[in-house]
Specification:
single chain, 660 residues, alpha/beta, Signal recognition particle alu RNA binding heterodimer, srp9/1, Rossmann fold, Helicase, Ruva Protein, domain 3, 4 domains, 5-stranded mixed beta sheet, 5-stranded parallel beta sheet, 49% helix, elongated, binds adenosine-5'-diphosphate, binds magnesium ion, binds zinc ion
Length: 660
């Protein structure tokens, strides 16, 4: 451009040469030479540089030989005869100056001047004004005029309208690809697993790092043994389980346990989250599953751990809108793979979920995840053990008692406790201490509880008391009812799935026939929870809702199904499933008895329940010392097992207690 010798463009050129320097570094030349080679890292900065470069390029080329002048000056030039030819565009008028060369050449359009300065005609540009006198003036001065060709850009126009959008789209595409994890430029490599799916060897986690989930640990010790000595089991003809499903609320150590199994067995560990399989593109998840199992088979013995199994394992017919094809394919592929390998190869699949209720039943069939291990929130003893594990990392004041901390954290999961230890350490540092004190833990608990209360798995003290009393009622009613199943465990640690506490009764033998007395006994035990609340607090709570559903159901079936009522002795008052369209899910019930009979059934249920409730109230009143003692013990220890329970009953009351 500096080669321009026209007086019209001289001043402009000097200005432009000043700014041409940055244009040379950020301009198109350097841009395009950078594009194909190099590490090809895309960043916002890069895109910005391209845009700046193009704008500069545009300015340099387009603006190089045309100066913009006021409309009045433009007209003056026409009047003076300086302009021989005019192009009228929408937003501009270009006038070609009367200097030297012939103006007839249509080819001499200025953008080419950059590359071929000789053909350039100096020109001026102006912004048009709505001026009816303009064309008459041109006529008068016999200036040739035409409307400007639409493509006024030439090379620049081509770049702006075609190349730039393409380049831009290419970059966006690349950015998306990167987001989706296929960082390699090979767009077709979707099915490959992310870098995450390499086997982790040498897992340092051991069972000693997990506490408070002893039952789960016991089951998994066996899995470790399978992996270490598969021959021991296969020689005798036993089948090694293929899949073990860890079920429990978040943060209870499911992932930790899976790692510990791999660590103890000394085998490779493949970890993938269910969400990783679910991709935008149909078929990718299935390909990932295939790939994962291919790698795992090569590395056997090993453990494949699928975290958050529910993300792919959701029941296939759940959801109204036809379901999710991609997830279904992924799940099908998983089922195929699980059926396809032989457990003697030393490949065991562990999976974790906190939503076992939504899993597709096909996953739980024999030969798949036929073993389920419950990983529950820890009780008092478990919490102390977990705190001990995590407190190893921090310096504690000698006087600090972790048992006190455990006592103050009912309902906390292992992850919550790990968080508490960390928060306490941070608090100590903030206070400028060298060691963590009890006060630091108190502050940490307060802080964490505030967060957890929102998630509502921390109970208020009064709620705990109600639950302890309620569960005691069930347990004592069970112990006092002849023929009831013995109590194995009572707990007020909230179970993950709805129940606030539980009383576990296990039958001594399988029962196929239940007598009417035993049915009434079951009702008694179910009503025991609410009765205990009434005795102790003089009021009842909503905590018994599920008990009442079950008790009422037993009472109803005694009357309608088992013929145990007085008026309809030995008669079945059945309801039959009818159907409007033949579809089973649209079934509705039609009863085959009169309205009056229905009323009798309702009243009879009410009568039975009221009578049993009265009976249970009396029974618990008579055992009030046991009730109080058990409630207190539960509040303190959170879980009471069989032996402790019956010893406590014997100690609390002189009266004979039937132990089942
Ligand atoms: P989940 O997979 O059940 O959601 P994680 O295994 O990811 O829980 O637990 C998160 C962290 O919480 C663990 O890394 C560990 O530090 C701590 N943690 C959880 N449960 C326990 C436990 N039972 N014993 C020791 N630490 C635990
Ligand atoms: Mg986890
Ligand atoms: Zn109950």
């Amino acid at each position: 451009m500096a080669g321009k010798k026209s007086p019209w463009t001289k001043t402009k050129d000097t200005r432009k040469t000043g700014s041409a320097r940055p244009g040379q570094t950020a301009g198109p030349g350097s841009l395009f030479s950078r594009l194909p080679g190099g590490p090809f890292r895309l960043s916002i900065g890069y895109v910005f540089a391209i845009l700046v470069g193009l704008v500069l390029f545009n300015m340099l080329v387009v603006g190089s030989d045309t100066s913009v002048i006021p409309y009045s000056a433009f007209k003056a030039k026409i009047r003076a005869g300086d302009i021989t030819r005019v192009e009228i565009g929408q937003n501009f008028i270009v006038g070609y100056l009367n200097s030297g060369r012939s103006s007839s050449a249509d080819t001499s359009r200025k953008p080419f001047s950059l590359f071929n300065p000789a053909t350039a005609i100096p020109s001026v540009r102006t912004v048009p004004v709505d001026d009816p006198q303009f064309v008459p003036l041109l006529e008068e001065k016999s200036v040739s005029y035409q409307s400007a060709p639409r493509d006024s850009g030439g090379v620049v126009g081509f770049i702006v309208t075609w190349v730039l959008p393409l380049v831009f789209m290419f970059f966006i595409w690349n950015l998306l690809m990167k987001r989706m994890g296929s960082s390699n430029s090979n767009v077709l490599a979707f099915g490959q697993n992310k870098a995450l799916i390499v086997a982790e060897g040498d897992i340092a986690t051991r069972f000693a790092d997990v506490a408070g989930v002893d039952e789960a640990k016991e089951e998994l010790v066996e899995v470790v043994d399978f992996l270490k000595n598969p021959k021991k089991y296969t020689d005798i003809g036993g089948k090694i389980p293929k899949g073990v499903l860890l079920v429990g609320p978040p943060g209870t150590g499911k992932t930790l346990l899976a790692r510990a199994v791999a660590g103890e067995a000394g085998v490779a560990f493949f970890r993938m989250s269910g969400a990783d399989f679910v991709e935008m593109f149909v078929g990718v998840g299935a390909a990932r599953v295939r790939d994962l199992f291919k790698q795992a088979r090569e590395k056997a013995p090993c453990i494949v751990f699928i975290d958050e199994l529910d993300a792919i394992g959701k029941s296939r017919n759940a959801g109204m809108m036809g379901g999710n094809d991609e997830r279904e394919q992924t799940l099908n592929q998983l089922l195929v793979e699980m059926d396809g390998f032989d457990a003697t190869s030393g490949l065991i699949i562990l999976a974790a979920t906190n939503r076992p209720d939504v899993l597709d039943p096909a996953l739980l069939r024999p030969g798949r995840f036929d073993r389920q291990v419950l990983v529950d929130r820890p009780d008092l003893v478990g919490r102390e053990a977990i705190l001990k594990i995590h407190a190893k990392q921090v310096k504690l004041e000698g006087s600090l008692e972790l048992s006190k901390v455990a006592r103050g954290t009912p309902g906390f999961s292992g992850a919550d406790l790990a968080n508490i230890v960390n928060e306490a350490a941070l608090h100590a540092v903030r206070k400028g201490r060298k060691k963590v004190q009890q006060g630091d833990f108190d502050a940490a608990i307060e802080k964490v509880v505030a967060g957890l209360e929102k998630k509502s798995h921390v109970m208020k003290a009064s709620e705990r008391e109600t639950i302890a009393c309620h569960e005691s009622g069930h347990a004592i009613a069970a112990a006092a009812t002849p023929g009831a199943d013995p109590v194995r465990k009572i707990s007020i640690v909230p179970r993950g799935f709805g129940a606030l506490g539980y009383t576990l009764q296990l039958p001594i033998e399988d029962r196929y026939i239940i007598t009417s007395e035993e049915l009434l006994g079951q009702i008694d035990v179910l009503l025991g929870g609410r009765a205990a609340e009434e005795i102790r607090f003089g009021k009842v709570s909503t905590g018994a809702a599920n008990d009442l559903v079950r008790a009422t159901d037993i009472a109803r079936r005694m009357i309608t199904d088992f013929g145990m009522s007085e008026r309809f002795k030995n008669m079945a008052l059945t309801k039959r499933a009818g159907s409007m369209s033949g579809q089973p899910q649209e079934a509705f019930l039609t009863r085959e008895y009169s309205e009056e009979t229905q009323r009798y059934i309702d009243e009879e249920i009410a009568r039975v329940i009221a009578a049993r409730y009265k009976h249970v109230l009396g029974m618990l009143e008579a055992r009030r010392p046991s009730l109080e003692a058990l409630t207190a013990t539960l509040l303190e220890k959170e879980t009471v097992v069989e032996e402790e329970f019956y010893a406590l009953l014997a100690a609390a009351s002189a009266e004979p207690v039937s132990a089942g």
